[in-house]
Design the sequence.
């Protein structure tokens, strides 16, 4: 089992992810934080309530880059 930090554990538990996917999602959140200027907690809240469709698509195709881009587009719309 991979050792997860506290934020990764939160992602792991909230979204029922594998250890590896929790780490990947944490990296996506870090990337989004840099691009949008939002902090990780704000993005986490958005993920919980605003991206159900994107998570479903990720489960089907496991394409993390497309997942990040789609969320980034949604976040940029809410920031403007």
Sequence:
């Amino acid at each position: 089992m991979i050792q997860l930090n506290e934020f990764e554990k939160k992602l792991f538990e909230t979204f029922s992810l594998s250890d590896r996917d929790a780490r990947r999602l944490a990296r996506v959140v870090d990337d989004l934080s840099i691009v949008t200027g939002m902090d990780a907690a704000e993005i986490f809240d958005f993920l919980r309530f605003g991206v159900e469709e994107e998570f479903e698509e990720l489960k089907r195709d496991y394409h993390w880059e497309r997942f990040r881009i789609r969320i980034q587009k949604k976040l940029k719309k809410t920031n403007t």
In short: The mean pLDDT is 92. The two ends are 41 Å apart (CA to CA). The CA atoms of residues 8 and 26 lie 6 Å apart.
